[in-house]
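Researcher: Go.
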Amino acid sequence: MNSNKKDNIYHDVRPLPPSIYKVTALEAAPKLLGQTLVRRTEDGDIRCKIVETESYGGIEDKGSHAYGARRTARTETMFQEGGACYIYLIYGMYHCLNVVTGDKDDPQAVLIRAVEPLTPRDAELMRIYRGKLPAGKPANLSNGPGKLCRALSIDKSLNGCLLNQMDGPLYLEAGADITDLSIVQASRINIPYAEEYAFVPWRFYIQGNPYVSVVNKQAAPFTIPR
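Model: Structure:
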């Protein structure tokens, strides 16, 4: 569908710098915070701020689907050159969205764990796609990887979509200046099988943002290297 010009009044449409797709997942994960995820739908474009990410990097990461160079029909997208999205299904019912980064044949992926709608209109469209929400705080709309995929109508049909192409159904735009964000890092969520990699501080989130899925009291301040 064609983007409604009215949707663009409240922000400057700028692509992410290509460099963010060329680095490792661990380098890219904090840099994706504050950036804008755009889902183009038949009802209009939905824009959200990325507020929480998780890094899964390389064949040595025991938390990664590609650990040990496991190359299957499911993981093949992870081996693409940075810029594609890797979408998979967990528990047979929840989709998860990842940003593929790095070089071809080096499986690097950043899981998008939580997003915040940019405007009330974006939030309303997301509520329509989510359906009936459980009682609780408004952030339950998209404060988790499965929740945000439902709210943005993201499923495996979008697997491999190029996030660095702004004419597609799902893409990334430049958002907030990351130097203005208060970023913390903490351990990843629900990967006990990853052994020593289960506790590495490879999850990043914007401190104090209500849409963050899990707040870790031991989270440490993180400064993005210049």
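Model: The beta strands are 36-41, 44-57, 85-90, 94-100, 108-117, 170-173, 183-186, 203-206, 220-222.
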